[in-house]
């Protein structure tokens, strides 16, 4: 009992609670303390329920023979929207909601319109406090009978919960005669703080709280249960809620009691941490003093150096000015040069005079020039010896203990998953610098902290050896002398469904140089219609004559599953992306067909080559993009219904549709997955890896990636993460059959 005093303290007055009420946040405070806090917060004085200390303090208990007179009921207003009930008035105007600053929560708790009236007393806590007082203070404080006349007041031996008073044996028999209703009152231990026998509804007087709303987590009476506000809520009898909650608490208590060893171990760790805190704080304080002493020593050393330079300059200037003063003094009438010149003029021998006077003449000429252009030989001011310490003062003002780096910000525009995971981030502008970063990555479903960690020194990381078609969760945090900072927000990256196929655009199929241009790296192509289209259009009188330019990859595959991605410029007119048999594509290239040919249906948006045979899979399969849109054909237009929309894909939305398919905005990157064994090709939104469309393709011979340009457009192959971050271009290693050669 003595060890639980802390649990019985009021968070406001820090004393044992008296008449505790339960706040909406489930914390208990003294009723008087809560009232004082509300008054200090600017709310009016709340109406507190009476709490008599003796039966003579109210008319109900003034005499055992006096009939009970009912207390007048105050008019109470209902909350808006709850309707009216007999004996109540609808509230006029809007009532301000009361906010109680709860100390344990550290925030304001909304009490509602009626304030503390809606807060029920914590009778269980009162009973625990009563048992605590009897256990701790047994024999030290006696409860006296409230009906004995002084000076013969006896110690109380019984208490009456109905009369709310304590009695000695004689007074109890007097006020509870045998055979009267008072004889049926409940007997309790003598006390000065009587509690209600049961909890009643604060809104409906004398209504017992018989139900519990699991949705609102509050007790209800039979009238509150009928309100619309609880419609659809899960309401159970209070006895069921009591048993459920009691079983949970019993189970939780048993778990804690069965793990006392763990508790003691953690207490030991905490005590060691407290000891280490004291030791480390002393070491940190000593380090702080040492740093300040070093700064002061450096300042003193620098002060001595600057003072020495200033003194040296003062001596030089003083000497220069003193010499100038001596020269001027020599020009006085009876001193120095003037006296010597006067004596020189007394010489009568011409030869001797000329021989001796030339030097004097020069000195006099210099003196005259100095008189006419007088200036100080040294500047007496020391303006350039002033120190500008504004920057240093600001640094000293900002001098503080080093802080751990703030949570990095993931650069979602550059972060991607392709052949490897590439993660890029940056620190916030007001963050402390980081010495290195810790990158945590794990598969989705693994709890945080259970993934792998990689230590990197820069602001980007490349992660390889990952599983295909998996979602990885990544986050990063910085570290410096102060330790690790907070983790960044988690980013989810979906790895490709198959190994990435690395290839380049083949420029050796006799490209039309005037219409199709391939970059030097052979990963980007641009179609420019040029004069040929202008000339063709000039000869055409009906429909439109457009030539399709074909471009293929330099690698053909014969087995396995492969994935690659590319991006199409949104301003492109028409660009087709897909796969096809190498032999059929070569035949198409050497025998080019225009878009008006019956071989290619211009309205389908999907070229399958299925017209050549009604039983075999198509020789090539394309998806058409252009003008910022992508066209997804329906299964009716594919060969024998082999093409279909993938479940959960974008084609199942509500985009513009037609009997032949649907049109959607062009994704930033388009992914293509070829399964040679199954003879299927699937197109993805490469950014989110959502499947867009799936169709069949003939894989009986080598199949290669293919691209078709109709009109102006541009296409860029997705660069490998490994190539992007390598210092030099790595040697290509092709493990599949190549059309031309195998590169090692």
UniProtKB/TrEMBL annotation:
It holds the Pfam family zf-C3HC4. It comes from the Eukaryota. Residues 44-89, 596-617 are annotated as: Disordered. Keywords: Coiled coil, Metal-binding, Zinc, Zinc-finger. Residues 483-726 form the B30.2/SPRY domain. Residues 404-498 form the Fibronectin type-III domain. It comes from Astyanax mexicanus. PANTHER family: E3 UBIQUITIN-PROTEIN LIGASE TRIM36-RELATED, TRIPARTITE MOTIF-CONTAINING PROTEIN 46. This is Tripartite motif-containing protein 46. InterPro entries: B30.2/SPRY (IPR001870), B30.2/SPRY_sf (IPR043136), ConA-like_dom_sf (IPR013320), COS_domain (IPR017903), E3_ligase_FN3/SPRY (IPR050617), FN3_dom (IPR003961), FN3_sf (IPR036116), Ig-like_fold (IPR013783). Residues 345-402 form the COS domain. Residues 600-609 have a biased composition (Basic and acidic residues). GO terms for cellular component: axon cytoplasm; main axon. One of its GO terms (biological process) is microtubule bundle formation. Belongs to the TRIM/RBCC family. One of its GO terms (molecular function) is zinc ion binding. Residues 196-238 form the B box-type domain.
């Amino acid at each position: 009992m003595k060890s639980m005093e802390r649990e019985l303290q009021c968070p406001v007055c820090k004393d044992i609670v008296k008449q505790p009420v339960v706040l909406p946040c489930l914390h208990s405070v003294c009723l008087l303390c809560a009232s004082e806090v509300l008054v200090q917060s600017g709310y009016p004085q709340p109406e507190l329920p009476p709490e008599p200390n003796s039966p003579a303090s109210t008319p109900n208990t003034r005499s055992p023979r006096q009939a009970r007179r009912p207390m007048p009921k105050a008019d109470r207003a209902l909350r808006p929207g709850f309707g009216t009930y007999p004996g109540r008035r609808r509230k006029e105007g809007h009532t301000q909601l009361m906010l109680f600053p709860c100390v344990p929560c550290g925030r304001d708790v909304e009490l509602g319109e009626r304030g503390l009236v809606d807060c029920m007393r914590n009778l269980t806590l009162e009973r625990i406090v009563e048992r605590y007082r009897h256990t701790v203070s047994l024999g030290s404080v006696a409860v006296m009978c409230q009906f004995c006349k002084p000076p013969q007041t006896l110690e109380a031996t019984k208490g009456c919960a109905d009369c709310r008073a304590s009695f000695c044996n004689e007074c109890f028999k007097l006020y509870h005669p045998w055979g009267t209703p008072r004889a049926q009152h409940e007997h309790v231990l003598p006390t000065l703080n009587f509690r209600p026998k049961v909890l009643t509804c604060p809104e409906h007087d004398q209504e017992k709280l018989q139900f519990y709303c699991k949705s609102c987590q509050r007790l209800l009476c039979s009238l509150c249960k009928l309100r619309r506000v609880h419609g659809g809520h899960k309401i159970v009898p209070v006895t069921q809620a009591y048993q459920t909650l009691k079983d949970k608490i019993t189970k939780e208590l048993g778990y804690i009691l069965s793990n006392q060893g763990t508790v003691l171990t953690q207490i030991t760790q905490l005590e060691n941490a407290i000891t280490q805190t004291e030791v480390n704080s002393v070491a940190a304080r000593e380090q702080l003093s040492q740093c300040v002493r070093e700064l002061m020593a450096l300042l003193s050393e620098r002060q001595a150096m600057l003072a020495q330079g200033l003194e040296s300059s003062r001596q030089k200037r003083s000497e220069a000015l003193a010499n100038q003063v001596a020269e001027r003094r020599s020009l006085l009438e009876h001193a120095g040069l003037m006296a010597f010149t006067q004596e020189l003029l007394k010489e009568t021998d011409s030869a001797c005079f000329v021989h001796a006077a030339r030097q004097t003449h020069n000195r006099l000429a210099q003196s005259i020039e100095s008189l006419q252009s007088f200036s100080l030989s040294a500047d007496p001011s020391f303006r350039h010896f002033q120190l500008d310490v504004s920057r240093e003062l600001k640094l000293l003002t900002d001098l503080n203990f080093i802080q751990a780096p703030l949570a990095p910000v993931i650069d979602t525009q550059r972060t991607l998953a392709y052949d490897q995971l590439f993660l890029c981030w940056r620190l916030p502008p007001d963050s402390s610098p980081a010495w290195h970063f810790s990158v945590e990555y794990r598969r989705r479903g693994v709890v945080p902290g259970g993934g792998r960690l990689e230590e990197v020194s820069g602001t980007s990381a490349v992660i390889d050896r990952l599983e295909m078609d998996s979602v990885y969760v990544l986050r990063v945090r910085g570290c410096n002398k102060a330790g690790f900072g907070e983790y960044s927000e988690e980013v989810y990256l979906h790895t490709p469904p198959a190994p990435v196929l690395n290839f380049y655009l083949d420029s050796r199929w006799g490209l039309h140089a005037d219409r199709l241009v391939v970059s030097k790296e052979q990963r980007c192509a641009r179609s420019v219609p040029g004069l040929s289209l202008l000339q063709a259009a000039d000869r055409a009188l009906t429909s439109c004559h457009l030539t399709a330019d074909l471009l293929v990859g330099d690698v053909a595959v014969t087995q396995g599953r492969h994935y690659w991605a590319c991006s199409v410029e949104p301003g492109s007119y028409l660009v087709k992306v897909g796969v096809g048999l190498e032999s059929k594509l070569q035949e198409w290239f050497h025998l080019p067909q225009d878009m008006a040919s019956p071989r290619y249906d211009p309205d389908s948006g999907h070229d399958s080559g299925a017209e050549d045979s009604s039983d075999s899979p198509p020789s090539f399969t394309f998806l058409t993009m252009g003008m910022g849109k992508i066209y997804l054909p329906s299964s009716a237009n594919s060969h024998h219904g082999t093409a279909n929309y993938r479940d959960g894909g974008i084609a199942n939305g509500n985009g513009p549709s037609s009997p032949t398919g649907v049109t959607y905005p062009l994704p930033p990157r388009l992914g293509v997955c070829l399964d040679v064994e199954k003879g299927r090709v699937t197109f993805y939104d490469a950014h989110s890896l959502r499947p867009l469309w799936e169709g069949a393709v003939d894989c009986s011979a080598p199949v290669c990636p293919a691209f078709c340009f109709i009109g102006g457009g541009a296409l860029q192959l997705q660069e490998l993460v490994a190539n992007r971050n390598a210092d030099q271009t790595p040697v290509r290693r092709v493990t599949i059959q190549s059309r031309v050669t195998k590169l090692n």
